[in-house]
Amino acid sequence: MLRACHRVLKPGAQLSYFVVSVADELDDGDTARAIEAGPMYVAAVSGYAELTVAAGFDGVDLVDVTDQYAVTLSESIRARDAEATELQDLLGAAEFAEGQSSRCL
Question: Whole-model pTM?
């Protein structure tokens, strides 16, 4: 896919993408939980910078936004807790409880 992106972009164009990966130090159970609680796609392998360079891109910059994501996730959880009654009414008790049990903080 990266090679196809490089082929169709105009010279000098930039490509931006994000990769969600699971911390290497997690045990198998926590890794499975992180994958389940995360977005639709969680990286199973690392090395995306190398793959991007191999596809023909140069000037690859990696930006780790883990700390910012943790702040955003914490705020989302706080808001969900603060609006629990309304969310239960909208989602139903079972769906709300499932969401609460699978959250990662």
Answer: 0.54
